[in-house]
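hey so i finally got around to running the thing on that chain from the lab meeting. sorry it took forever, my laptop kept dying and i had to restart like 3 times. anyway pasting the input first so we r on the same page abt which one it is
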Amino acid sequence: MKISQLYTYPIKSFRGAALVSSVVTPHGFPYDRRFMVLKVLNDGASPAFRNMTITYFPEMVLFSQDLRLAQGGSSAGTVVVSYLAPDSNTQTRIEIPLVPDTSYLEVIDVVLHNSPTKAHVMQREYNEWFSSRFGYEVMLVYLGSHLRPVLGNLSPNTSKLGNDTKTSWLSILTDHVPFLGSLQAEKLDGITFADVAPYLVVTEKSLEDVSSRLPEGEDMDITKFRPNIVLAGSENAYDEDFWGGLRISSIADTIDEDKPVLIDLTQNCARCASLNWDYATGKASPGESGTILKKLTKDRRVDKGTKYSPVFGRYGFLQSSIREHSIAVGDTVEVSQKNAERTTF
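ok and heres what got predicted. didnt touch it at all, straight out
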């Protein structure tokens, strides 16, 4: 198999930015999901904001993003966010530093999928720009040096903590709540604003199966599955259900062939209504493309831990021994471990 596509999502739930290559880190691709948009609530509720994700806010698909990485110098570069309103031919754009100065930014507590962290509220100019496009008040927050604890049995290091998977999440919170700002500690994994894991791997072969469920001439857009790594050349659709690990050998001459990138695949990715969204309108797609989730529900509810949701793709974690490696489109990929049965989320 080979890597056919790579994607990163600097701002969570906006459309992804395609990559040709990327450094890999234990917390995902650099800059992946380091920002998130929050809806400001003015009803006296606590907290005074709501996490915005593509599942519940389909209008987020109207925002696309591209990286402009700096070539040398002290700046990391910027993410350029473009907004195209439905029935409009005019895009508006804003440029945001990938690594903003947080010295004077307010810090707030954010809890995403029961996983707590802290984040910096970005400056007014950004919040007003996004609020005007959404049509209601929002704020952009930046993770900075903070990370989120990994839930339950998702991490391959769970067993190394000496906890049963049923109690490890509670134990992690009890033991490490005072140290949420420095989750790079040896004992604990940390993730960004990605849902539950640093990497999501999907295959083109499985995508073909999804497209076969649509009327002739229609193809499923793989970006709706929001992958980080797309693989071409797998033998059968959904072979990845049983994959426990991947070995990626770089085509770059600068990488030692004896030191491949190793990714542990620990859990299945359960799917939500975002598969049905029309990226041109920010609403449910018309016709059968707006019923993709229902179509997959018929035979892809294969994980007992998420028995009401269909599965597509596998969540992955970089093996802890991997440091300063890169992967690229065209790299060779082998399955390093196969499971006898599907994992249970």
